[in-house]
Amino acid sequence: MLKAFCSKTIGLTALVACLLLISLNIHVKESQADPANNWYTQSHYGLFSHFTYGSSSFNQTIYPNGTIPLNLNELGNNFNATQFAADVNSFGVDYVTLTGWHYAMNALYPSAKMNLWRGAGHASSHDVIQDLINALQPYGIELALYIHVTDGHDFTVADQTATGWNDSSNGYLVWNNFINDVVTEMGNRYGTGIAGYWIDMVFDGPFQTKIDKPRLRTSLLAGNSNRIIVGNGSTGDAANSQGGGTTDYTAREYYGQPADINTWTATYNQTATVMTTDGQWWASTPTGTNQMKNTAENMFRFTVLEAGVNQNGGGMLWNAGNYAGFGVLWPDGVKTGLQTLGGYINAVGASLKNVFPSTSYARSSGTTLNSLPNGIVATKATNNLIEYIHVLNPPVGKVLTLPAPSDGKTFSTPTILKNGHAVAITQNATNVTLTLGAADNWDSLDTVIRMVASGGSTGGVIKKNDTDASIAYSGTWGYSGSRNVGDYSNDVHYTTTNGNYFEYTFNSTGIDYITSKDVNYGNIDIYIDGVYKQTVSALNAGGYIPQQVLYSNRSLSPGSHTIKGIKTSGVYMQLDVLDVVTPNLALNKTVTASSAVSNSDWALAKATDGLTFSSPGSMGWSSLNSLTTNHTEWVTVDLTTSQALSKVLLYPRNDGANTGYGFPINFTIQLSTDNINWTTVATQTGYALPAGVGQSFTFSSQNARYVKINGTSLRANPNDINQYRMQFAEIVVNP
């Protein structure tokens, strides 16, 4: 609209104003301050349905009465895309994962490449995928396709020979030619209709040894360079690097979990699990028997938990296969159960859709519903300005006391999300206390409290696990690992002798002592720098609760400090983890630059205002000189006093399509005590376009008052009529 207006013949002053607005992209997706610039990181609830034909001897998807489609074409002709899309919309999901192919790579769409390599019979004549793309589009639900690129073990001997499954020559070149032909054809066929792929068994030997991973990555992005690629096959928080550069994210396939969902562990990665009692990923049981393994209420609560832990996106991917045919679509209990689950999610939708896990109350992988610290998990809006507290295990009475937020935020205007009723709040350096009104009570499922967030150190914390070598233990201490009761890193150190203590020296302005409470635990005396501070209690008459903040001090002077915790009573004393505050020394400090845009969104001061997400009112700092040619720009932060520095975090602008643009290609980071003589501590050349998360640069600790970023080669922004700017959403400096 704006560009169309500016294209008309207007006065010079108005034209300049229009071009400035266009170049700054002030109104481009401002509400989508997405650090990873994709739908996946903001999604926490999906449905996975395997709709798949095996063979005459290996049955997969069935009709509701138990009969079996005779062949792949019959199955393809009996996918009810219209009803499927309407149902999943009523389930409230963010995205759907459906089979592209599974057993023997029997594809659910016409594929000339599949026919070329293998002959007829392995590609449906009916296009199930396009039907579903069309049906989902009105609902705005993203579609990812399940594929298996190492399923040659299910091929006939003739097909294995034709596709090179067992031919290891030239790095299994023939198999890679086959796979990339098929994947590229599929990607180009559906374009942006496919938002992602979910690749099975990327952690297994065949994927690791047979697949040309960079080549496959290129093929997976054919037709849509923004696709999200998820690799399945891990059992926890396996590193995405196992995908060898093919995948963006990793999925945990959760099976063999306990019957009690309250003891299921949430993970940083996406969790995919079968929700039906038959344990199959496709519909394999005829109607007549309830197939729901868990209640909708328990599924909702675990979905909320996963949303608060799931740092890497995708959340919960619940699985239930749909039947073939145009009658009953789902196994007994599934549709009602998922519609109930969707109702619960939609009732608090703002806190679960298009959000990230909280950085104020981050929860570690391995957290369970029955071991929640303080009974809560939290999520935050993508612009970092709204915090949602999910009270899953409410306290007795109307008062909820939380530790101070780890990222230093200040909260205000708390309300109950469902009814808008005000919640009283007090916040100090140690605690946040929330009190319900007289007419309100805790919801047994999930009371969501919405709060406005401001400030924040953007420094966060460094976690020192009990096994850290820098923690000194005096006296006899034991170690307990693989506990599976919700402790950080699943372990603790413990002692039973009064007078025994732990001691830890750190360089920071704050520290938290975090450990468990139980019925036979007692008191611990806390000392800071040899001075007694207070006695804290680890006693909890109600039983074991992990990861409780027993002591917090966030107001120490900058420099070196020592914490000591001495056991004085009770049977046990434990140490689980110490949270060491890493303050943002640049917060609200003075910024100067070679040039600067100055308006309500962009300004020098907005580079150090504590907001790491580009959002209306705080986009960050932007240069203004020589926009049409590559050139040099600089920006400097004055920390007021000279102090020890070892880390600089540079946050790119992260507003939708502009994410990463403005981040220089070549640059240096320099330090100075006098703003005249400079020492270079980091040099970067050819820096790739970053995602919207902070880019970290560490160096040996040295004293400085001034921090300067010199951009010597800038990046043209295609969304900014290819102009050259240096831009940062936030500049963070840590000791």
Automatic annotation (TrEMBL):
<keyword id="KW-0378">Hydrolase</keyword>
<dbReference type="InterPro" id="IPR000421">
    <property type="entry name" value="FA58C"/>
</dbReference>
<feature type="domain" description="F5/8 type C">
    <location>
        <begin position="573"/>
        <end position="731"/>
    </location>
</feature>
<dbReference type="InterPro" id="IPR008979">
    <property type="entry name" value="Galactose-bd-like_sf"/>
</dbReference>
<comment type="similarity">
    <text>Belongs to the glycosyl hydrolase 29 family.</text>
</comment>
<dbReference type="InterPro" id="IPR000933">
    <property type="entry name" value="Glyco_hydro_29"/>
</dbReference>
<dbReference type="GO" id="GO:0005975">
    <property type="term" value="P:carbohydrate metabolic process"/>
</dbReference>
<keyword id="KW-0732">Signal</keyword>
<protein>
    <recommendedName>
        <fullName>alpha-L-fucosidase</fullName>
        <ecNumber>3.2.1.51</ecNumber>
    </recommendedName>
</protein>
<dbReference type="InterPro" id="IPR017853">
    <property type="entry name" value="GH"/>
</dbReference>
<keyword id="KW-0326">Glycosidase</keyword>
<dbReference type="Pfam" id="PF01120">
    <property type="entry name" value="Alpha_L_fucos"/>
</dbReference>
<dbReference type="InterPro" id="IPR057739">
    <property type="entry name" value="Glyco_hydro_29_N"/>
</dbReference>
<dbReference type="GO" id="GO:0004560">
    <property type="term" value="F:alpha-L-fucosidase activity"/>
</dbReference>
<dbReference type="Pfam" id="PF00754">
    <property type="entry name" value="F5_F8_type_C"/>
</dbReference>
